[in-house]
Protein 1
Amino acid sequence: MKILLVNYRYFISGGPEKYMFNIKKILEEHGHEVIPFSVHSNKNVETEYAKYFVEPIGGRDVTYFEEYKKTPKSIWQMMTRSIYSFEVKKAIQKEIKDTKPDLVYIIHFVNKLSPSVIRGAKQMKVPVILRLSDYFLLCPRFDFLCGTDICEDCLTKGYRSCIKKRCVKNSLAASFIRVFSMKIHQLLHIYKDIDAFITPSRYLKNKLVENGFSKAKIHCIPTFTTSRTQISKPIIGEYGLYFGRIAVEKGVDTVVKAYEKLPDHKVKIMGDDTTDEALHLKKYIQEKNLKNIEFIGFKTGAELEDVIKNSRFTLIPSIWYDNLPNTALESFQYSKPVIASNIGSLPELVVDGYNGYLFNPYNIDEMIEKIKILDDDEKVQKMGANSLHRLEKKFSPNKHYELLIKIINDIIKNSKNKPA
């Protein structure tokens, strides 16, 4: 089988890209041919299919919105890539014509490729599966946050709420473009072209069904993780660990405030420490002269895994409806208990008192209480073993592949049986 894999980045940037490369590897191990379609970047993994990729907004050394130079060309690209890009449609149709895939599997396209990848594929009579890693079909900001508060006003009062509050990048223009694009996509009925939606969590699936999406088209397939190095006997470490994006919605400030009150406990914070939120928190730590909180920067490969292996437990203090984060699965892989916010999909991962603990978002005292419970080595060891067991039972690569390939086969079969 030949599968065209679509994502707006072809390098590791976050959870969607980790999933993309992992599923590509597994599909190939099962004898399928996987062909990428993406955006050019100087960070991209090399591929012979790069000749089909489209040019990025603002240049090949630019990744994020804040880095774009606001030239007439980049502004036009931002608008078309948000709403509908004929340039992207032409590019993906060229690749489909040349490579003749059986199916298109889309990971992420918003604001960088546009949903023209969906219609472009359907016009070539190729079935399409869309995997969702956030709430972009329902929320202009993708995360149901307004500032640091959960907000669903766009669902109950309409998208004008987003424009009024300048939810997207705190910008009136960016908010208007995003809302306008969502309205256009609704008018074009573009998501009706999707043959199946894949959600990593039941929470996201239920949100979509509650808001009018066809339950029959939505399939919950939990994600998975894979190790690059040998996993040895579990280690009971001496420090707590937060790892992942250091952004407001991730609630890392709760970790800092908790460990401020726990001077005898150590925590490491691993991730890009040049973000606005990271710089804010590092300044706070310096001003308070906190010696037990260490930012160690972004790590990859064996270095990343060593930091996880040698931790005592990990922390996921999200304040948004977090959607089955990879950090939980990577923690389970190394037999680590997880202390997580009781929000979004996180209770699907952490069973309170079994493989970790749940606490209410923002609640510093509750987090401290859970950290202190895990001073007990025996409890850490038992909960860590439960984490690994839960991973193997519910979040294994083989389980994910079995569920996904069944859906892919069914969709290809159905598409061939449809009248021309």
Protein 2
Amino acid sequence: MFKIGCVKIANPFILAPMSGKTNLPFRLIIKKMGAALVHTEMISSEGLIRGQKKTLEYLESDPKERPVAVQLFGTDPESMAKSAQIVEQKGLDIVDLNMGCPAKKILKNGAGAALMRNSQRVADIVSSVRKNTKAPITVKIRSGWSPTEENYLHIARIIEDCGADAITIHPRYTKQGFSGKADWQIIKNIKDAVNIPVIGSGDVTDVHDAISMKDLTGCDGVMIGRETLRNPWIFKQILQVQGTGEPFYPGLHSWHELIIEHFSLLEKYFGEKRASNQIRGILLCYSKGLPKRKELRSLISEIDGKTSFLSLINSYFEQVSGGTLHED
């Protein structure tokens, strides 16, 4: 266990924020699997303070997912502070400031990882948020813009000095996007340089990676992103390996139950139509761990409501009941 400000984090393993993915239904599923902290999708500070309906929806929460961190992006210190106040007023747990997103649409406005090229703006944003909210603050960064503009230690020290409670580092350069290999040594370097908790991110694709990152870098937390879309059980598996040494392997019955549960949560919070649209993309990710995935993918486009979803899924699992997955 470690703490981010006043918030206790029960174990080191954390769900990363992912745009279009880490909505409330998915966070509830991942929390149930054992994640100690979950993150919302990335939220525009400007959209939040303007009260945009879709943006406000990102703040919907459930006591079962707590603690939850809300990730904000923007470039204006005052707007970032105001949006952090909204998060705090909603009673959510942690404000996470994004200074690591490499998406072009974010960079072109000077937000996300572009902020690492402006250390004064980094200081102004973190200081402004710190002065205007009592909520714990985390900041996510990268190694720098490029190998010739590597400044992660300088930025990390600014973040700490300006009052943040933790730092998350994805050790790739902005120019890399998600290509190449994450340099975990950078996580260790930051951990050795600051006195606040450090969360590592990048290239955690299985249980071994998660445990190795923590052991090799000494980081306080390990953030897991894309792998959760293929294997939602990864948190449960990590904790079991640390406990008994034997990870849980989901069988077809577990996959069947999970997929139905996921649709039910989507329907509960977003309605049947949106649930039907979203489950298609979710099934594309989940199918990577299932037999006859081509057959399943070919049927996904036929989902147009709860009835067709249940018919398709139940029929699929009846057909693959003799598959080669581990038994429950």
Protein 3
Amino acid sequence: MYEIEAEQVYIAERAQADPLCVARMERMLPFIRADRVEVVSDARLNDLAAERGWQRTAGRRTGELRRNRKLTIVLNRFEWLDSESWWRRGERFPALTRFMLDGNGAWTLREGDRFAETMGSVCRRAWEMHCAYGCAHACAYCHVGDLLNIMLNLEELADRVERFVGERPGQQLYKFDNYTDTICFEPEYGASAVMVERFARFAADVTGPEAYLMLYTKSDNVAHLLDLDHRGRTIVNWSLSGQTQSALIERGAPPSGARIAAARQCQQAGYTVRFRLSPIVPVVDWREENRRLIERIFEHVRPDSVTIDVLGWMSARGLRGSIDLSLLDGAFREEVEAKLSAGDEDGGKYTFSHERRAEVMGFVVEEIRRHSRDVVIALCNETFAMWETLGPRLGQDPSDYHCCCGPHSVPGRM
């Protein structure tokens, strides 16, 4: 587990009362250097959430929130409530909605049709699974801020996930986790062992669903994965970046070279390996840095897919607050500065113009194709216009495509 600096650790009373949760937190706490540790009731946690503005960080980026502040950590526990109990809790503790207490937060639906309607973009509708909110890596562009809320009753989560997956035979791949990076907390946390081994049961049961787990990470902390009996039902997907982005914008994460080395280890251990070049920050010399990154990928690993995306999901002001604009390539910096001058506060998906995004992704596609004619390449949450521009080079169509985390993008089907 990473060593983590925290201003405060709050232990929820419900977790303190659960022996399995206590055992898990006792393994984790030696790696957390905290100024203060306090056991709290729901009422106290609700007051803290309201006082600290934990509900109001939505839309602000980690680069804005964590420059001079340590993490706040909540060690917590899922509770599985019926709808009436859920509403009653919400009325009593309205500031706890981000704390996934009722268990419904263990899975969220990524609604691809909503993206198409509101942004004219392409994404696949799929359920995703969660066990925490917040991250140790502190990438400047991220959305999770400085609060890390970790749920500890993982065995109960796995039992419910098994039923959840069994009731949805139409979905084959489940991303875990888009709200955190669980690999940072291993092996003391134990989410990998619990979830990987649970999905391996599906391979052992010939009548079970064809379901795959996808671990989503920037970490190189993979030693705990190598001896797990995954039975081919776990995919490990790394987000990678060029040298400047890795060193200066993703400061809390291992360098991309270390991530690639970790991917090689996992591939040798039989895992399916995928990469996302996402989000690509168009820094000065982005072409050469991404060329070198892609060369290094294919020197060491044979991914079955690569998904690409350009930095977005923030306004020009949010970008300026999160990332030093002098790091950006001139044409991209000029677009941001023009938006700032015009007072443009559109915080939607596409921070840069179609032309600029197409320039970056088109270059990346060509570089990948220099090394592999077979690897699947996909665009992440991009417009129909971008698919029209780049689709022929990808060999995929927005009406039926495979990507790193699509609901049917499983090994052998790519």
Protein 4
Amino acid sequence: MVRQSEGTLGSPVGLHRVLEPSGDQITLPQSAGRLDASSRIWPDEVRIDIETLNLDAASYRQLAGVHRTRDDQIDGAAMRTAVLDIVATRGKMQNPVTGSGGMLIGTVAEVGPQSPLGLRAGDHVATLVSLSLTPLQITDGLARWDGLGERVPAAGHAILFGRSIAAVLPVDLDPELALMVMDVCGAPALVARLVREYVARGAAPSVLVLGGAGKSGSMSLAAAQDAGAGRRVAVVPHAGEAAMLEGLGLADHVVIADARSPLGLSGAVQAAGGPADITVVCVDVPGCEQPAILSTAQGGTVIFFSMATNFAAAALGAEGLAADVRMLVGNGYVPGHAEYALKVLRENVAVRGLFEGRLESKQTRSL
């Protein structure tokens, strides 16, 4: 590995930051056991002073399920310790159970002279790559985080590589609102792309969204509508979330069903018009793979955006059900995804209302 002092570029995908494993066993940063999160940057890197971490839903749910008080409440102090231990041990925020991380917002502190990212010192940005592969150091002990939500106020720094992605936050939106949107911006962009493929062939595909009241779910419904989808069905787990969506126009049908129940979900979907051409899985619990496949029409497509997805269960489940479906992993990146998600937020009053309601709820809980 070339030494930083020689002034040459680091690996654009961050191999030079991988500490474990090393030598012939070296891996990419996402699958590495430990990263070098030191603050000195290579010529093609960017250092960001962090402001807020946003843990992904699957990771936070797993940690919150483990760290409980005697009366079964989330133990905020234990949550802080757990996240600090992960970052100190691994040099990144990657939940060792779920393998996932999240994203962050912060201010660009230093830009290497050969960075291709187009950022400047002082830019207020959101990273669009996972914390599971981003070198990270925390310096404030997460003293401002109560452990009771995915949003984590923090001080420290993060490093972006030559092939990382970041977006300058728009000045017309609350930074926290923009972070919520960018955290799920891959979902609406991919859904819109698939719907447009159908539309280009003269069809208006039906779209089923599991977790339709959530961030990625509501954005996916709006994107499907924007791209020209036909019937849109939102699946939610209880009446409270159904009430959030009813009357907003994001879905033609809002059904209450357990997305982990093959019979329960397929029955609810059948009552709402039958299996969908495109099924989007946005729930952050395991066990939704086969019900989603069963609720998708032959020749249709299932998009798995949840980090709780068991891909072996999905593949074997499709085989066992004799389901001729295309299955896609929502990898979080589509060219122009951040800009498209922000466009959807600005133009769709219903989605903006849902997101602003979530933000207001989070801010109220933090008081």
